[in-house]
Amino acid sequence: MRRSAVVHKTLWLVFVMLLCQGCGKQAPEYEHVGLDQGAVKIPLSRVNDGGVHFFTYPFQGKNVNFFIRTDGEGHLQAHFDACYSCFKYKMGYVWNKEKDEVVCIACQIGYKLKDVVWDYVGPCAPICLKSRIKGDFLVIDQSHIEKGQRFF
Predict the structure, then answer these.
(1) How far apart are the C-alpha atoms of 11 and 78, rounded to whole Å?
(2) Domains of the chain by range and CATH?
(3) Lower CB count within 10 Å: N or C terminus of the chain?
(4) What pLDDT, on a 0 to 100 scale, did the predictor assign at position 25?
């Protein structure tokens, strides 16, 4: 066999091994949340401070991660800790407090917290998670959060 063919096959094997390894990796784990009458309920006093708060909803052996942020108009918004492009790496986002943005760990694209709507840069942007305010709680219906399990 020619040397270039051996090198090509070796590189292909390494690529496949890395790809498979990334697929089996578990997403990080944050503070666990559970269900209360068919929904995740997070006290507003815990998340309404202008920052970013990460949570984990355990579902079918996976960590379904999401975060809550306060946008520039003072509204709370929920997002899965994943994007359509980089979810397969199971790395999620990190809050860069100095720049006041969340940054995709895999591709390093950042999104300013003050922005009400995050423009998509290609397919990399946190996936929106439907939520609502009810009384003193941010509420996420069980069905909405469990639909996101495919990203984790």
Answers:
(1) 40
(2) 26-151 (2.102.10.10)
(3) N
(4) 65
